[in-house]
Amino acid sequence: MDNKSISTWLGQFPMFKSCTQDELEQLANLLLFKKVERKDALFYEGEPCDIIYFVKKGQVKVYKTTEDGREQIVNILTAGDMLPHVGLFGDSAYPATAEALDDTEVYFLYVKPFTTFISHNPSISIKLLQEMDGKIREIQARLSNVLNKDMREKILSVLLSLARSKGTQTDSGYQVDLELTHQDIADMVGTTRETASRILGQLKREGLIRMENHVISIKE
């Protein structure tokens, strides 16, 4: 995309809606473009948080590594999402690892130029904090649901939460296009792939979910 197209695209992010066209073009000048292949990492948990990413195309999973070496997926990000949502300021480290679920395209910029930019645009700071707060609340609600339900309910709850936030509403529920494997779903609820596969099979037979060509349909 050319600079004008990039600035228009940035204007669709909630935190940048109050920016003037000139401010958006200034921000677009700071952005760099990168293609990330499936299974490649954008960053790793514990590394210095010095780059901010904006997903243009594709899907990114964000996960933490447990003490026993397992992945615990905390979020799935798609086109129009920013990451990370915490650790941007104060010489912090990335709080989790981000890995492309499929071939992904991102724009990115370095934290220091970005902080300089928002220091001259205080309204963006407020929008940025609101965006972070909303994302963190969404993740906390999803994890809370996972903790308080049995495994069948956990899987349904996680899929429905993702479909609501990333997909579209249908006559019977929600539909979302996500490149999720049974292992990914297992990692989101803290179970084994075998258990996740068995429960997903049950849910399919009962007509509560349908998974075809990475499109997940869920009855509400």
UniProtKB/TrEMBL annotation:
Locate the HTH crp-type domain: which residues? 149-220
Q: Name one Pfam family in it.
A: HTH_Crp_2
Q: Which UniProt keywords apply?
A: Activator, DNA-binding, Transcription, Transcription regulation
Q: Cyclic nucleotide-binding domain location, by residue?
A: 15-135
Endpoints of the signal sequence: none
Name of the protein this chain belongs to: CRP/FNR family transcriptional regulator
Which species is listed as the source?
Ammoniphilus resinae
